[in-house]
Design brief:
It contains 9 helices and 6 strands.
Length: about 220
């Protein structure tokens, strides 16, 4: 392996952010997918705006606020399911290839970690629910910095924790903006483009693009 440390974004990369709504899609009705899309979009938007303002709220609070907004935009979805959706979000499904990919990297001698906007309690629940805690050397939350990615201090958490230079790290994210931020910081980056999105940030290109985490060790 060319890199000794493989670091993963959590939400959308290891964990399926739409799994919570999908679990309750029948009760939510025909606009369930729309609700899920708005929920995710606002969750991210709030993190960016809060970082720019210097007015931090932890990611779980933003997740709650984003869901409330989504319900207000999609009145066909019954907001009585709010607590059920939030509970489901704490234990999101991992993508099916995740355990085997992490296991393969570890078997090859690499260290593995998460770097996420998620609050520590969110990440603990997701990691434990997915059964991957023993496949990770560290789980890093930006919460201790009180700022979100793509602030360069968030990526520096990895180099500080593992005491390495950025070029020793392969960073994987499904979010193109996150890949751009990590590339600028100096990580080798892999964009996990699960939904075949068009490329952007042409001046901050990833080293590789994959449709899933499968084959990561070979690129």
């Amino acid at each position: 392996m060319a890199h000794s440390i493989y670091v993963f974004d959590a939400y959308g990369t290891l964990f399926d952010v739409h799994a919570a709504v999908r679990k309750h899609s029948a009760a939510l009705g025909p606009d369930a997918a729309l609700l899920s899309d708005i929920w995710r979009q606002k969750q991210l938007e709030y993190s960016w705006v809060r970082s720019l303002m210097g007015k931090y709220l932890d990611f779980w609070s933003l997740t709650e606020l984003a869901l409330d907004f989504a319900f207000s935009k999609v009145p066909s979805a019954d907001s009585v399911l709010r607590d059920d959706l939030l509970k489901a979000y704490e234990t999101l499904d991992a993508y099916p290839e995740v355990p085997d990919v992490l296991r393969s990297l570890k078997a090859g001698g690499a260290q593995t970690a998460i770097l996420s906007n998620g609050a520590p309690s969110m990440l603990r629940s997701a990691v434990d629910s997915a059964g991957i805690a023993d496949l990770l050397d560290d789980v890093l939350s930006v919460d201790e910095l009180r700022v979100f990615k793509t602030d360069e201090r968030t990526y520096d958490m990895v180099t500080t924790a593992f005491r390495v230079f950025p070029e020793a790290v392969s960073f994987q994210s499904s979010n193109r903006w996150d890949v751009a931020g990590a590339t600028k910081f100096g990580f080798r980056t892999v964009w996990i483009n699960r939904t075949a999105q068009p490329d952007e940030y042409a001046d901050l290109s990833p080293a590789a693009v994959l449709p899933s985490l499968e084959g990561l060790a070979q690129v």
